[in-house]
Amino acid sequence: MRFRRSPAATADTDVAEPGRGIELRGVGHRYGDRVVLEGIDLQLTEPRVGVIGANGSGKSTFARLLNGLVLPTQGQVLVDGLDTRTQVRAVRRRVGFVFQDPDAQIVHPTVAEDVAYGLENQGVPPDERAARVAEALERYGLAGHADHPAHLLSGGQKQLLAIAGVLVMQPARVVFDEPTTLLDLVNARRVAELIAGLEQQVVVVTHHLDLLDGFDRVLVVDGGRVVEDAPPGPAVAAYRTLAERR
Ligand SMILES: Nc1ncnc2c1ncn2[C@@H]1O[C@H](COP(=O)(O)OP(=O)(O)OP(=O)(O)O)[C@@H](O)[C@H]1O
C-alpha cells in the first residue's frame, strides 16, 4: 500500500550536502520582545566545536537552533544544506541533541525500551532494533541494566542512557547542552571520554572548560553575540577576561 506524501515529507527527502556542515546566516532570536541572539554568521565544519559564555548569554538557545528545536526569528540555520525551518524532520535525523538533564529525555519505563524508542519511530524492524539496542547498551556500559527501571538509574547512568538513546539513531552530528553539569567528577570524565571518542561532529555547550581540551574551535557567547571564535586556549582566555570585567 502506498501513502501519499505530504509536502513536508517531500521536502525532507531533499539531498543533504554533508560538506557544508552547520551554517547560521544572519541569525537572531528573540523570545517575545527580548532579543537573546543577534548577528550570528557562522559555518561550523570542524569535528569538535565548543560553546562557552556566562549564564543567560544565549548558549542553550544557540544549541537548540542547530537541530530545529528553536527556529530563528531572524535569518536561517542550515544543516548540510537543509533548512531547519522547512526541513526540520530531515535535520533532526541528522542532528542528535543531548539535554543537560537526562530526565528531560528519558520517557520509557525500562532502559532497553528507552533506547529502542527512536528506532521504533524510524520504523527500524524489530530484529535490527534489538541488535542495535543491545550494542548501544553494551557500548555505554548499560548492558546489565537493560530491563531495569530507567528512573532508578544513578544520575551518571541516566546521562549515559540519554546519550545512548541519541547515538543509537546514528546521527551525523550531535549537540550536547551542558552534558556534564549534573555529574560528579568520575561520570563527567566518563562522558568527556565518550564525547572525545565519537566519530560524529560534536557541538558542546559547557561550563566545564576541561571538556574543551583537544577541541578544534570554541565560540564565546556574550550578550547574545559570538564575541570570540578561536581555538580553546585563546577562547577560554577571552572568556576569563570577560568574566573579570563583570
Ligand atoms: N523559552 C523562553 N522564553 C523566554 N525567555 C527565554 C526562554 N528560554 C530562554 N530564555 C531567556 O533567554 C536568555 C538566554 O537563555 P539561554 O538559556 O539560551 O542562556 P544560556 O547561555 O544557555 O544560560 P545558562 O548558562 O544559564 O544555561 C535568558 O535571558 C533566558 O531567560
Keywords:
single chain; 246 residues; alpha/beta; six-stranded mixed beta sheet; four-stranded antiparallel beta sheet; 8 helices; 10 strands; disordered N terminus; binds adenosine-5'-triphosphate; ATPase-coupled transmembrane transporter activity; ABC_transporter-like_CS; ABC_transpr_CbiO/EcfA_su
Report on the structure:
It comes from Geodermatophilus africanus. The chain is globular, with a radius of gyration of 18 Å. The chain has a single domain (7-105, 171-245), classed as 3-Layer(aba) Sandwich (Rossmann fold). With 246 residues, it is α/β, with parallel strands linked by helices. It has a 6-stranded mixed sheet, with helices on both faces. A 4-stranded antiparallel sheet has the order 2-1-4-5, covered by helices on one side. It has helices spanning 7-12, 59-65, 88-94, 111-121, 126-139, 155-167, 185-196, 232-245; strands at residues 22-31, 34-44, 48-53, 74-79, 82-83, 95-98, 173-177, 201-205, 217-222, 225-230. It binds adenosine-5'-triphosphate (ATP).
Tell me briefly what this model is.
InterPro entries: AAA+_ATPase, ABC_transporter-like_ATP-bd, ABC_transporter-like_CS, ABC_transpr_CbiO/EcfA_su, ECF_ABC_transporter_ATP-bd, P-loop_NTPase. With 246 residues, the protein is α/β, with parallel strands linked by helices.
Sheet with the most strands, sense and barrel status:
6 strands, mixed
CATH class: Alpha Beta
Strand order of the largest sheet: 6-7-8-3-9-10
**Percent of residues in beta strands:** 15-25%
Structural class: alpha/beta
Number of helices: 8
Shape verdict: globular
Q: What pattern of helices and strands is seen along the backbone?
A: HEEEHEEHEHHHEHEEEH
Summarize the amount of helix as a percent range. Answer: 25-40%
How many extended strands? 10
How far is the N terminus from the C terminus? 63 Å
